[in-house]
Amino acid sequence: MDDNYRAAVDAAAIFSETDLSGRITYVNEQFCSISGYSREELLGANHRILNSGLHDSAFFYGMWCALVAGKVWKGEICNRAKDGSLYWVDSTMVPLIDPASGRVRKYVSIRFDVTEKRQLLHTLQWRVGHDVLTGLPNRAYLSDLLQQALEFSRSEDKPLAVCMLDLDGFKAVNDGYGHASGDLLLVEVAARLKGILRGGDAVARLSGDEFVLILRHVQAPQALHAALERVLNAIAAPYVIREREVSVSASIGVTLFPVDNEDADTLVRHADQALYVAKQSGRNRYHLFDVSLDREVKATHQTVARVRQALISGELCLHYQPKVNMRTGQVLGFEALLRWQHPLKGLVTPADFLPLVERTDLIVDIGEWVIAQAMAQMQQWQVAGHAWPVSVNIAARHFQRGDFVERLERLLARHPAVAPHMLDLEIVESVAIENIQRVSQCLEACQALGVQFSLDDFGTGYSSLSYLKRLRTRTIKIDKSFVRDILHDHDDLALTQAVISLAQAFGRQVVAEGLETVEHGLVMMDLGCDIAQGYGIARPMPPEAVIEWEANYVQPPQWRAVAG
């Protein structure tokens, strides 16, 4: 190789040359540095000196077949350094052909260190399946664990208990001693739960002080009672948190499969309903879900009936939160957010009534009403000279209907003045991956109508490269839980950067949710995400306030200076 070319490659990459038998004939300083071997140790040695043991023989056989045939081979390889540590390289191996004979005379390898990228992706994959505070599986991973447990119970014809656990008195600890002490308490609770579970059992943290237990060793009622009493006693034992003695207890809701012969999500919901009864009954106890009739079912029916009446009576309304390009100051569109104008309670947010409604077909009626209202609002804005697209959230039960596409087409036909691409449907990541094939087909059918799609709450599910490839949504919305903490949490900052890089690599637009401050915006722009929504820009507002807000909106001077 020409010395000038070799100098350029040496400066840019990990470089080596190998003869036809696989012996190393040249390495540059970067090769020595990353492998930990000196040049003298490497020259004349076979490349197997770096074998990590993580790749099987078929991997190397395919590589050498390509090289011997005179083809370029590309791939990522894990090597083992002299000190035993592992590192990953993105490798391109090129056979050099002798012009006179037409035969391969040697091989050159150009590598780039991708260890940090691999570690970051691994961290991201772990984070989306685990609770960072306690290390327990989170809601996303719980679904897999419970599905596996159900399959085992069906095949072995053994009962399975699904338990929802909530701490009694946790709020008092948080309020009295601070959230840091509350976090330490949760860590200790998680450790105690892991310590008393038997092989095959599992525990996950959903959120706050809510945990789910999967108990397999419950062949008889006595065994279930003994297991739950162990849990209650373990939680109720005193804690020492920051040199203070703290006492809490637990309430547990339990449902038993196959007596409660439902799917994983329904079992968790039934355990949650039983938990409510346990708390109402005095706490520090457990309650077994009654499949035939449970008091919580009545409360659910009452809530659903009241929300249905609210829909009929015109008490539901939409507020709109803007999405802004922070760099240019341009308002790009709005997200429609459901509100309930309750005659007694005032404006009620969906978190207070939708969770129960989402389990019924009423959510379909509400979802279609939201789409219709958003389309009508866009038409009004168009008449006023504003072509603002609007995104709406689609619930899992609504989106998974077999006739979703046909019903959506009818809704679009009622508003022919509004181009379908102005409507953006947002589905959460966890819903999208529950049935990837069905969701992909539905996405394509809707996109054929012209409708856009966004993947909401990205980073809270699996965030897999394969899912991004198959779910061809236009936009990815980074979950607000990551954005909120990027100013002081290096992990969240790194994960946010990784998510942005993944999205950009697949040509997706990225929107940051929950942007709270100007400083958050500066960090997001620095990471390559210019579009955001959140209280740092504007709170959701009624439609009559939108035009005036947009006319008076001016991006913060700090953002303008960056864009400058």
UniProtKB/TrEMBL annotation:
Transmembrane segments: none annotated. SUPFAM superfamilies: EAL domain-like (SSF141868), Nucleotide cyclase (SSF55073), PYP-like sensor domain (PAS domain) (SSF55785). Its cofactor is Mg(2+). It is found in: Cell inner membrane. Its main location: membrane. Residues 19-44 form the PAS domain. It comes from the Bacteria. Residues 158-291 form the GGDEF domain. One of its GO terms (molecular function) is catalytic activity. Residues 300-554 form the EAL domain. CDD domains: EAL (cd01948), GGDEF (cd01949), PAS (cd00130). GO terms for cellular component: plasma membrane. Residues 71-126 form the PAC domain. It holds the Pfam family GGDEF. This is GGDEF domain-containing protein. It comes from Pseudomonas alkylphenolica.
